[in-house]
Amino acid sequence: MRHEQLQVGSLRFDVIVDGPDDGPVVFLLHGWPQTTAAWDEVRPALAAAGHRVVVPAQRGYSTGARPTTVGEYRLDHLVGDVIGMADVLDAERFDVVGHDWGGAVAWALGAAHPDRVRTLTSLSTPHPAAMLAALPRSAQALRSAYIPLFQLPVLPERLLLTAGGVPLRALLRRSGLDEQRARGYVDAMAEPGALTAALSWYRAAGTAPGQLRAVGTVTVPTLFVWGSADPALGRTAAEGTARHVSGPYTFHPLEGASHWLPERHAEQVLPPLLRHLATDEVRRMELNEAIRTTRAMRRLDHDRPVDEADIWTILEAASKAATGGNAQPVRWLVVTDADKRARLGEIYKACWQPVSAMYSTRFDEPGTDPSQQKVLRSADHLGEHMGDAPVIIIPASKGGDPASVFPGVQNLMLAARELGLGTTLTTVHRLQEADVRSVLDIPEDVTTWAMIPVGHPTGRWGEATRRPVEEITYWDTWRTPKPRTAGD
Fold it and tell me: Does the N terminus or the C terminus of the chain have fewer Cβ atoms within 10 A?
């Protein structure tokens, strides 16, 4: 970790930089009245994961970036500061994580600069449009009653810093912040001009309210973590945020958590945040790349859970597959219960053992392709560990026609690949299908067509070895190949 200064135009920002110099850049943006210390419980873990973590003291909080006029604290200037810092760091693309007012800046960055923002994470702060929509139809207006007071000139500074900042410290303590950090923030705000500059964010929003209203729909991969015990930001705005994100979106509520998520709840914030940062590139994958690199992934990380939002994403893709007459006869049974997964694993293991013995005899013959033996070892691993998969999905339907099943399965597997999730398709369980029905209470007239484990793969992605398409394609007549000309 080192302290640096970044010059952006006429402003000089104090920043903390941590992690490898060649790592992907992540900006951590604090809110009011925080300092860079707000991220002390989060920053080291991101750096250890290989990220180049940049924690700026934002406009008004850095002594060298403290304009004196309210208009210079408008949201567009705050967004421009981060873009300017990214340019100084030669970060063409970056991740942004914001809390409180830093979250508002993160939302505006993601909406205005999707070409620069790789992923967006907001802690506590809903999308500004969701916040505004919640004001007239929930208790959000009451929760936000302090804002008009903060927008008044002079009076807030006098009230909050009376008696050495006792009222400000009491406000922070009542909202869930610990005593040590509350004192640290009060000490920072007691520096000459610091609190006035920090309150200028609120005052600028009051003089240009259209800026928050103008924050558009976010298309970049987004994670929103919200604490249900936040006294300032309520559930209506939090749940309404999904309507303002069209890209991949994960809402991660923390029941009982306070407003101060980076300081007080880092242990709950870090797992979803690290997963979110790690999955950014695969979320942006082109369809053709997903097609080329989708392969059976039978070795899955049983200790790493699959986000429920990702499960819905791949099921949504499966549901869009074509079916005869648009009948959609397939039902997708998602099994996450640990006991039921374990019981399905035992059934699958019993089914796989005789199949494995048959293949072992065949693949042990001289001249067998080594790649087939590798596939068998992978399949044997799944035979032993099907029940350890974080999720098992079973497509099922009434009747005996699987024609509508497998287009949906293919969509599911491609969507999973895009999200970095491993899957494979197996039908071995049907040797004991009655036992599967018993575990999952499936009626006898419903056929279970496949068992699909889903999880984060322990192996690497990459194009599987396949025979050239020219060798397996005939034109007009059986076994009549057609040479492929240049440009085809």
Answer: C
